[in-house]
Amino acid sequence: MKMKQLYKYLFAAVLILQLTACNNNTDAEQLFQDTPTARLNKQKSELNDALLSSQYGWKAVYFTDNTVLGGYTHLFRFADDGTVQMASDFDADTATYKSEYAIQVGSTVSLTFTTKNRIHLLSDSDNYPIPALRAKGYLGDFQFLYYGQENGEIIFRTNRSNQELRFVKATAEDWTELPKNLLMEKNVIGGEERPLFRLLETNDGTTTHKFDFSFTAVTRFANSNSIENGYSVSYDMGIGYTPTGIIVSPAVEVGGQKLSNFTYNDADGSFTATGTGGVSAVIKYTDKPLVLTDDYKFLLPGKPLSWFGFFVDDYTIDAPTNSPLFYAELEKVNAALPAGQRIASIEIYANHSIGTFVYYTFVGRGALQHHVTVQEDATGKKAILKHKSWNGNTTVATPAFLASIDKYFMDPEGIYVKAESFRLFYSDPVYTFTSASSPFRMTTWKLN
Amino acid sequence: MKIMKLLKYNKIAVLALVSITLFSCGNDDLPGESQLDFTQPEKTSLDNWIDVTYLNPYNINVQYKWNQNTVDNSRYLFPPEVDKVKPALEIVETIWLKSYAAIGGPDFVKKIAPREIVLVGGVNLNSVGTKTLGLAEGGQRVTLFETDYVDKSDRDNVAQFIHTIQHEYIHILNQNKPFDEKTWKTLTPGGYTADWYNFEIEESNELGFITSYARSNINEDFAETAAMILIYTKEEYAAFLDGIENPFALQALKAKEAIVVKYFKEAFNMDFYALRDEAEKNTTSVIN
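^ Those are the sequences you sent over. The predicted structure of the assembly is below.
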């Protein structure tokens, strides 16, 4: 029996299905008004209109990967004939060049710079800033997927690495002042006359924290680590240049606020970003080392003999810790010496049986000993060297050719001594001597 | 009886279903014109020159504007400078297309040719430090790198650039008609190595290979041997053979040359030496 009934139900079910199949009134919610194709076309014209809408074009500070590289500013002015005028601060050539662009429809709508221009310099496998980026250039992209607009900015994501990139409306000044970005780079690198030490100081309104700060120009990237014990925060950031300062990415987060725009102050070489409620971050110079050590005590009276040496013809000359001012002073000595004579070494003997002295040796002439007395500055963690005699003769004046370099060792503010963690080829420990009131730093081996 | 009834119902039901199916969707919209925008960008004078020089006579499309679908997206490459495209294509046309047309007949390259040439501006650097100069994919597409660095006034520079297309075209010919791989395999079996780039060219020459890259496998060996002979002038190649000290290597190089010559004759009825002379003549005419 049941067989027949079963068939009946089955027929009924199929009939109902068939009868309702073509009902237009699906209950599914309509998320979009248009078909996907129509929506893509709409996006395409929306992007095209936006690109053409800005009188002075668009500006993008492109951080290709803010874990290793800084930002590269690009200016674009699009024309409706498919060409684009472009300038960038990638290198000293900030001139404007013309190339082609296209709005391409693939899985989504994208802006592609289809013929060569400045932005392609970031994507040259054969031009990379550090060995780790070999065959990867500057990790740049030149196809940007369109993700809409917000507050007058166009939001893209890069095709390869899926990074957000925003185009903001450019101004006439952006175009004329682009070369100033590269002048600003010099300030970020820092001139020879600036102090040797640099730090990042954050203030969340109540507490300040200090971080060391080192900048690598080839990658436009800075590393900044806390120098306080028990406070292990780091700020590593890519840096982009502006005519008035720098933009950093990722932003420096202080007291819950994200600070990314720093303004340059030429008086002291500092860069300051200010938030609200007393929050700020400052990158600034200091004459004082960030971390003071007790290594100066080698020089104090009553200690055993210590012998430090810098040698012109040996690995000490290549130490990265020698300062430009130190090299300049060596040149000055040689320039003041008669032809055929030059400085060969500067050694410091502390607590030798004949006293404590700076020992200058030369090629082509005899050595000179500058005997000193040593005072301690225990709070400043410095040793202060004071003139006693030249080669034991207390009445003879300082030789003219040594006067300039010698005064840094006799700095009335004293000298800092620091054991470095690196070695210079040989296993001898490396110590640096830094004048407390000027960017003069000499690197030596400790030879006993 | 019951079964009969059931069958009747069946028939009626089937009829009903069929008619519903046939008529139900009758008022659906017919497909109209495509909603996709197929308007082509305006052609530049360069685009028109490419049409006249490559597309119309040889049915080869040249792509110099960036299209992510024709390049390896994991590589850091970029499109060529527009000003460099025409000089590069002129070199390819004169030394490669015209030489084959002169010796193989005007239709030769039309029949066996890549359907697309992709030009890339910069160097395709590999992580081991080698540079990929060109690619031939499935016999359909040839990609030429370093277009931005082409310098028509420098014979060595032109030779390197044309080396790429000659080499890749040999691959395409091989993909149409195979060469005598059996014999080739027996000539220098011990010399093939994956780290060919660690060897000086002179070192590889003395093992019976025309370049170090030829040592990567027999297909590359064949392509390198044919391409290099086409790039050398007759005198240069003779001088190259003269310089080989190892008699075994010399013998191997000559045996390889003979297989190449035989291949061109048997597979395509072409005189390989005549092709070489034509390429040499055309190379001279290209260099300013």
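The interface with chain A takes residues 2, 6, 9, 13, 16-17, 20-21, 24-25, 35-37, 41-42, 64-69, 73-82, 121-127, 129, 131, 148 of chain B (CB under 8 Å). Chain B has a mean pLDDT of 88.

Shout if you want it in another format.
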